[in-house]
Amino acid sequence: MFTGIIEDKGIVKELRRAAPSVIVVKTAITASEIKNGDSISINGACLTVIRINGDILTFDVSPETFNVTALKRLKVNDTVNLERAVKVGGRFDGHIVSGHIDGIGKIVGKKRMGDFFVVRVSADKELLKHIVKKGSIAVDGISLTVNGVDDAGFDFVVIPHTYKMTNLNEVQSGAAVNIETDILAKYVEKLLKNSKGDAKSKVNASFLAEHGFF
Length: 214
What we know:
Blueprint: E1 8-16, E2 22-26, E3 39-42, E4 45-53, E5 56-60, H1 63-68, E6 79-84, E7 103-113, E8 116-122, H2 125-128, E9 136-139, E10 142-149, E11 153-158, H3 160-165, E12 176-181, H4 183-196, H5 205-210
Antiparallel strand pairs: 1-2, 1-6, 2-5, 3-4, 3-6, 4-5, 7-8, 7-12, 8-11, 9-10, 9-12, 10-11
């Protein structure tokens, strides 16, 4: 599990799609802080470290991960967002991020607003149904707050610190990004679907609203 607070911007040194598929990344996270088998989020996708050589980390990547995430579009020397799995008892400064990508969006606009940036992302309806204004979302692993959402996509405001510390300062319009929607939205949807087929269930939209789910 992750928080969406990026620890480092790594550099892709090798990308091998043919089996055995791997991504090799150079990072400023020290080798003493990582061991083989650790989970690390790369642009929001949870991957497992299989080899450590100084500041170079090698990760296994399943064919499914390449198929359903924007990792397949990475190139050597691209910058990626890195976050180690959260420690039990550690600070939780972002939101609950599982590292399981729900889909791919596309950057369609980035506008400066003083020291801040407003970023627009297009996404399909299956993703958008779980995205709400002022809700949490992870874009390339970054914990963000949705500023607005409509039938074509959503936008968010990036503070200067986040812009500096993540790859958002490098991605351009047209870039594909990994999206993980708020896990609470998915549970709410499941509860509502289940309640429709259970005449005795007390879980409905009114119940969830009354108890602060939305």
